[in-house]
Automatic annotation (TrEMBL):
<keyword id="KW-0472">Membrane</keyword>
<keyword id="KW-0812">Transmembrane</keyword>
<keyword id="KW-1133">Transmembrane helix</keyword>
<feature type="domain" description="TadE-like">
    <location>
        <begin position="28"/>
        <end position="70"/>
    </location>
</feature>
<feature type="transmembrane region" description="Helical">
    <location>
        <begin position="29"/>
        <end position="49"/>
    </location>
</feature>
<protein>
    <submittedName>
        <fullName>Pilus assembly protein</fullName>
    </submittedName>
</protein>
<feature type="compositionally biased region" description="Low complexity">
    <location>
        <begin position="12"/>
        <end position="25"/>
    </location>
</feature>
<dbReference type="InterPro" id="IPR012495">
    <property type="entry name" value="TadE-like_dom"/>
</dbReference>
<feature type="region of interest" description="Disordered">
    <location>
        <begin position="1"/>
        <end position="25"/>
    </location>
</feature>
<dbReference type="Pfam" id="PF07811">
    <property type="entry name" value="TadE"/>
</dbReference>
Length: 147
């Protein structure tokens, strides 16, 4: 008859998930993994932030160009309207010749091009081989002349 003392020896002590308890060779593995992953994660996070800001600035510039062209189509000041939309005076606005006030305006269009210098928050592009920390973004708006 076999008693309790006749059982085979138990397996070594393990943690949840079947991993053995840490030995001396596993010490510091989490710190090394963090040191490898953290820079990659930071580059990704800052890249997403800068890209989001760039998309927002481009959308604002498109709105400004459209509003400037609309103002020019009604013979108003396109530069003032475009700068009001962007909220800055550092915006460069190029407008076509104002719409004619008399005669046929059917083929005439008002064109406004708005450009602005965008500055990145982080030098991510220079780390990835890009050039500079600024980018010139432009948008163009075209409207038919309405007199």
């Amino acid at each position: 008859m076999r008693g309790r003392l006749d059982r085979p020896p138990a397996a070594p002590a393990t943690r949840r998930g079947g991993r053995r308890s840490s030995s001396g060779s596993d010490r510091g593995a989490a710190a090394i993994e963090l040191a490898i992953i953290l820079p990659i994660m930071l580059v990704m996070i800052f890249g997403v932030i800068d890209f989001g800001r760039l998309i927002s600035a481009q959308a604002t510039l498109s709105d400004a160009a459209r509003e400037g062209a609309r103002a020019l189509a009604f013979n108003q000041d396109a530069t003032l309207r475009a700068q009001k939309v962007t909220g800055t005076t550092g915006t460069t606005v190029t407008a076509s010749v104002p719409c004619p006030t008399s005669g046929s305006t059917a083929a005439s269009t008002a064109t406004v091009t708005v450009s602005q210098t965008f500055t990145y928050l982080t030098p991510i592009l220079t780390l990835l081989g890009g050039s500079g920390t600024t980018k010139t973004i432009t948008a163009t708006g075209v409207m038919p002349c309405l007199g």
